[in-house]
Amino acid sequence: MTTAAANIGVVGLAVMGSNLARNLASREGNTVAVYNRSYERTELLISEHPEAGFIASETIDQFVASLAKPRTAIIMVQAGKGTDAVISQLTERFEPGDIIVDGGNALFTDTIRREKEVSSHGINFVGAGISGGEEGALKGPSIMPGGSAEAYKTLGPILSSIAAIAEGEPCVTHVGTDGAGHFVKMIHNGIEYADMQLIAEAYDILRQAGGYTPAEIADIFTEWNGGELESFLIEITAEVLKQVDAKTGKPLVDVILDQAGSKGTGVWTVQTSLNLGVPVSGIAEAVFARSLSSQAAQRAAVDGLPADAVKWSVEDRTEFVEDVRRALYASKLVAYAQGFDAIRAGAAEYGWSIDLGAVSKIWRGGCIIRAQFLNRIADAYKTNPQLPSLLFDPYFKKAVAGAVSSWRQVVAKASLAGIPVPAYASSLSYYDGLRSERLPAALVQGQRDFFGAHTYQRVDMPGTFHTLWSGDRSEVEAVPSTH
Predict the structure, then answer these.
(1) What's residue 476's pLDDT?
(2) Are residues 338 and 279 in contact, defined by beta-carbon separation less than 8 angstroms?
(3) Vertex 75: Cα angle to 71 and 76 (nearest 5)
(4) How is residue 68 annotated by DSSP?
(5) What is the DSSP string of 88-134?
(6) Is 48 a catalytic residue?
(7) How far apart are CA 350 and CA 91, in angstroms?
(8) Could you say which of 81, 92, 115, 192 is catalytic?
(9) What is the rounded CA–CA span in Å between residue 46 and residue 390?
(10) C-alpha distances in Å from residue 424, one per residue of 108, 218, 393, 421
(11) What is the mean pLDDT of residues 156-180?
(12) 231 phi, psi to nearest 5 deg
């Protein structure tokens, strides 16, 4: 008979769940209960890792009985119906004060719904974003838990024990109530999409315009990783580009099919930001670029589409590489700025109190977008928690000022040469829109009022107005609107 000895349990023992369970078991003070719907997977885990001292259960009832009170269980199963099924099983067996944690990539609105349902039974429900992939789950991820402050009193020390450490601090913080943790993880993944696309565009420019080989570009990225672009993604890009295919002897990147997949979080980021009215154009273009790459039939049907391209003549190769680096850095800053804007807007919409500086700190280690300049982001929000945009912070404003000329050159020359740079170009357009004193949206408002009486506001007086449009434009009359 299983005894109640575990302070934490894990349900779902696929790679992520197994690695998280092993991470938990390796930390002093943790005793870990494990359960999987298929007991064969549980047996495999405990046989391969006897040192972990797992308390294994064949049934959900045994699993619940193995947990010390307040019972705490982390669910690591496929998002959707599988998650709902496990939550239902645990809710039926848990008692008030117990804690259910969903550690998967759930849509934050689902987490809000689940938290409301579970909390009605007096049980705490926590949606926790966990970033870092398989290795992070095992060695130390970045963790973004939501839920109640009461639940975090129990859960916080456990999560801190397994989180990545950056500059002596665990990469975990209580993000906010109900769906806040999964919301922030969603935005993290959206930024990740943009970051990866921008790096891919830099690679494409260096190869197509500069004529560099993948191995040479790997060396360039390695050098970049020693400066302000230092990040996990830059580091692994160099490793990918160094790899040679054993079968063909070609660079591995040349034998990988150029069709990129998506698991949903990038799409969710764009959809949610549209609903919030927050422009995340860099992230959106990264999602669309993956979609275009996957249109295999459409791309195969292309036959002689006119290009009218002009060869990009690179005269000074050192200057060319530096221009691409600067453009990449400026575009990355836009992606992070847009992501943090979306977090701020989400917090306002859903009543969360999210510390943006604390979020940037927990992204410094363990997660996929960990980067050197996250410290600068933390400093920016510490100095001014109400900063309207990261691009207005003095440090980042100066950084963009030093890069904007290169940024324009790269986008313009890539366009002339027919090299697609959707994320670079959209990021630059966003920057120019942000800094513009007046935008053509005034004309759009006029158009909307003409065909739909949608009204507009004026620059010279308060109120809302509608024009009585007539055939003779000289007789246009503006009247106060009741719309």
Answers:
(1) 55
(2) yes
(3) 150
(4) P
(5) HHHHHH--TT-EEEE-S---HHHHHHHHHHHHTTT-EEEEEEEESHH
(6) no
(7) 25
(8) 192
(9) 47
(10) 29, 20, 21, 5
(11) 96
(12) -165, 165
Q: Contact, 372 vs 320, CB < 8 A?
A: no
Model confidence pLDDT, tens digit, residues 384-424: 999 999 999 999 999 999 999 999 999 999 999 999 999 99
Secondary structure letter of residue 75 according to DSSP = E
Q: Is the peptide bond before 70 cis (omega within 30 degrees of 0)?
A: yes
**Structural contact between residues 72 and 123, judged by C-beta atoms closer than 8 angstroms:** no
Q: Is the dihedral of CA 408, 411, 289, 210 positive or negative?
A: negative
Contacts (Cβ under 8 Å, ≥6 apart) of 245 = 251, 252, 254, 255
Distance CA 178, CA 148 (A): 7
Which of 92, 153, 185, 477 is catalytic? The answer is 185
Six-digit token pair at 281?
């154009």
Write down the residue that tokens 């239902």 correspond to.
88
Q: What is the mean pLDDT of residues 123-140?
A: 95
Q: Rounded distance, CA 341 to CA 389, Å?
A: 7
Residue 137, token pair as written in the block = 């789950």
As a whole number of angstroms, the distance between CA 454 and CA 444 comes to: 11
Mean pLDDT, rounded, for 3-27: 93
Query: What number is the average pLDDT over the span 3-10?
Result: 86
Render pLDDT for 325-357 as a digit per residue (tens, 0 to 9): 999 999 999 999 999 999 999 999 999 999 999
300 φ, ψ (degrees, to nearest 5):
-70, -25
CA distance 342 to 460: 31
Q: Across-strand partners of 456?
A: 465
> Contact, 356 vs 381, CB < 8 A?
yes
Q: What are the residues facing 100 on neighbouring strands?
A: 73, 125
Confidence of residue 473 (pLDDT cuts 50, 70, 90): low
Distance (Å, rounded) from C-alpha 244 to C-alpha 359?
37
Query: pLDDT by residue (tens digit) across 275-332?
Result: 999 999 999 999 999 999 998 888 888 877 888 889 999 999 999 999 999 999 999 9
Active site residue 242: no
Question: What's the rounded Cα separation, in Å, for the pair 58 and 20?
Answer: 19
Virtual torsion, Cα 376, 379, 385, 389, nearest 10 deg = -20
Q: Please, what is the Cα angle at 29 between 24 and 33, to 5 degrees?
A: 50
d(CA 53, CA 60): 19
Strand, helix or coil for residue 194: helix
Q: Give the whole-angstrom CA distance, residue 194 versus residue 266.
A: 9
Contact predicate 229/154, CB 8 Å: no
